[in-house]
Specification:
single chain, six-stranded antiparallel barrel, Elongation Factor Tu (Ef-tu), domain 3, globular, eleven-stranded mixed beta sheet, alpha+beta, 8 helices
């Protein structure tokens, strides 16, 4: 049952931060607790220590940093080791920068289906989908994953978006029988990813269900008990298509996070910090809201077809999305870029196409950048480019760097 009572909670010191790129990840030594008061529904979302950092002081991190709305570990053993584990072995990481919002009430499915860009109406129990929240002009106000938990729905998003999404929910719940509960301080999560993730979870004592067949790049969610601890396992069904990117999440009560974290490390998982999570995100070609996806973007510009359903019926912004689909593509597209001459690339840098006849022409901008630890002087970037120019292999200039357009995700990077 969802607790609707307002509670005063102890949080870590709050700070103000907005993510941009890996180079701007703010780092600092461990700090002491401070106090703040929080209300369940209309509370202000603040930058706070994750539950893992709270219950496992330091938890072996070399440095802390602020990432996607929360303070967590930035680095453990170093970028090369952590990135290798996350891709070829098994990495475990803090997902306390995510927040959970529960939706109950008899109108919850109909109401959320009318709020987001993907199909909630036909979402089976135990399944989840990725979706956008749009304004009436079709621009993206936020992104989230929504799960059907049977008698309620759970929305999962970054802490940096939580206050904004809660405000949007409040605005559009009018006569609807929908109850909203912020579960942020009750639940936290750990992530497990890599080629050996399933093997390691089994070794740690988790009885994993057989993977379900992917349906429109959706998510599978299963409740389970591990050594007496109640938890929920989320499997990204689309992440394992290449046999090495299988990823899982474990949702659990904040007070149990130390027990499972220690068990995963004992089974052989390598702890991974936010710095490598950001590099891996860029290498995987996944846009981050607030960095790569902003309010001025339209859904089709982001190339995130997994966030859209064209059969679900009406929702806010649907008219614009359908108009784009029926009349043709948008002019810009989300793409990847590789630069190898050692020149520095920064988010916000303009992308220029050179033409012997027409001369130089600005055709896009960079939104995220990551240096490749195994290849000094080589960088990868995400950004937007004019669709007619964004052909894989096309040579462009980013700042002072010669670069090429590449298909996402980056296949041989890292």
């Amino acid at each position: 049952m969802i607790d609707s009572a307002c509670k005063c909670l102890i949080l870590r010191r709050t700070v103000v931060w907005r993510a941009t790129d890996v180079s701007n990840l703010r780092l600092y030594p461990h700090r002491r607790n401070s106090f703040a008061c929080s209300l369940r529904y209309n509370r202000e979302i603040t930058m706070s220590m994750t539950a893992l950092q709270t219950y496992v002081e330091g938890f072996g991190a070399a440095r802390l940093g602020e990432y996607r709305g929360a303070t967590t570990s930035a680095v453990f053993s170093g970028v090369p080791t952590e990135l290798a584990a996350l891709r070829a072995g098994c990495g475990v990481y803090d997902l306390g920068f995510r927040t959970k919002i529960a939706l109950a009430g008899k109108d919850r499915v109909r109401w959320l289906n009318g709020m987001v860009s993907n199909n909630i109406r036909d979402l089976a129990a135990g399944r989840g989908v990725y979706a956008f929240i749009l304004n009436p002009q079709g621009h993206i106000l936020g992104d989230l994953s929504a799960y059907n938990r049977g008698e309620w729905l759970v929305v999962d998003t970054d802490r940096s978006q939580a206050e904004k999404i809660l405000a949007i929910f409040r605005k559009y719940i009018i006569m609807d029988k929908v109850e909203v509960s912020d579960l942020s301080e009750k639940l936290t999560a750990l992530g497990i990813s890599g080629a050996k993730a399933r093997e390691l979870l089994t070794k740690a004592g988790f009885e994993l269900p057989e993977p379900a067949s992917p349906q429109a790049n959706d998510l599978q969610i299963v409740d389970m008990k591990w050594r007496g601890v109640d938890c929920t396992l989320v499997c990204n069904l689309a992440s394992g298509d290449d046999g090495r990117r299988t990823s899982y999440e474990i949702w659990l009560a904040s007070g149990d996070v130390k027990t499972i974290w220690d068990a995963l490390l004992a089974a052989g998982a390598t702890p991974v910090g936010a710095e490598v999570l950001e590099i891996d995100r860029i290498l995987s070609g996944v846009p981050l809201y607030g960095v790569d996806i902003r309010e001025r973007e339209l859904p089709q510009e982001t190339e995130q077809a997994r966030a859209l359903s064209f059969t679900k019926g009406c929702y806010i912004g649907q008219e614009i999305v359908e108009r784009i689909r029926s009349r043709g593509n948008v002019h810009r597209m989300f793409a990847g870029f590789v630069a190898g001459d050692g020149a520095q690339i920064a988010p916000g840098a303009k992308i220029v196409a050179r033409d012997a006849i027409a001369g130089d022409k600005e055709v896009g901008e960079v939104t995220s950048v990551a240096a490749l630890p195994a290849e000094p002087g080589r960088s990868v970037a995400l950004g937007y480019i004019r669709r007619e120019v964004g052909v894989p292999g096309r040579e462009v200039v980013i700042g002072a760097a010669a670069a090429k357009v590449v298909k996402l995700p980056f296949e041989e990077a890292g």
